[in-house]
Amino acid sequence: MKRRRFLTLTAAALVCPRGAQASIWQGTALGADVSVTLTGPGADAALAQVRTTLTRMEALFSLYQTSLLTELNDSGTLVAPPPEMLTLCHIADDAFLLTQGRFDPTVQPLWSALATGGDIDTARRLIGWDRVTLTADRITLAPGQALTFNGIAQGFATDVVTTALAAAGFTHALVNIGEYRALGGPWRVAVDDPTFGTLAQTPLTGRAIATSSPAALSVGGRSHILSSDGVAPLWSTVSVTAPTATMADALSTAFCLMDRDAIRATLARLPDTQARLIDRDGNLTTA
Predict the structure, then answer these.
(1) Is the Cα dihedral 268, 269, 274, 278 positive or negative?
(2) How big is the CA angle at 82 (ends 104 and 33), to the nearest 5 degrees?
(3) Does the pLDDT value for residue 281 go beyond 50?
(4) Beta-carbon count within 10 A of 77 CB
(5) Are 24 and 37 within 8 A, CB to CB?
(6) How far apart are CA 46 and CA 52, in angstroms?
(7) CA geometry: angle at 131 spanning 152 and 253, to 5°?
(8) SS3 240
(9) Predicted confidence (pLDDT) per residue in 258-271, tens digit
């Protein structure tokens, strides 16, 4: 699956400290093109560690290879989940509540039904994150349920990598694991829409940005951003800037299915978080 994100790094070389040389690693992980731009002593060793971290993230959350997530979907129960899996689930729970259920990882059966020509009505009835049971030693799905973390795992991996780089002493980095998060700055990213092109540029210093474009990918003739009640996306692109890439990722997905008033009500509960909305006519506004 191609990345649904449309964020472009621009003028990265201009923000490197004078006399410093940036080290850049590019690859793929969690179904996304990824890159890490890092400045400082020990950058090459740190980038090698990034690759190790991403291998661990894929072993936890990937739908494209065998992972703990695919094991959970197959069996319906995951005993003794590792802390990172539980952490992501609890953040998903927060996002589900903040967005009145518009962010819901249990849409995976609907995705599968649309992709394979299955029973869509039956798949819709399986959706409901509130029926997933989380305890300290177990994750349990309701019968027939399956999860996708494609709307949050890239952001979570971005945060994990960024936090590790900061702990190692780096102060100037741009991490892109499907979403962007900056150490230091300012970095500048462009917000692009698949129909209307680049419509904004955003300086990014010590924060994260995630963008969702419903038209970037389709499944069964519909947008890949799915809802339990069949509501179609309301926006051409949504971009969210937030303290963490995990929450920016989840919100940019959910906001595609929410009107402006609902988006503003959600943002009112979240400090230092903003959304840019591109409508069907290519008009860009800030929520």
Answers:
(1) negative
(2) 60
(3) yes
(4) 13
(5) yes
(6) 10
(7) 25
(8) strand
(9) 999 999 999 999 99
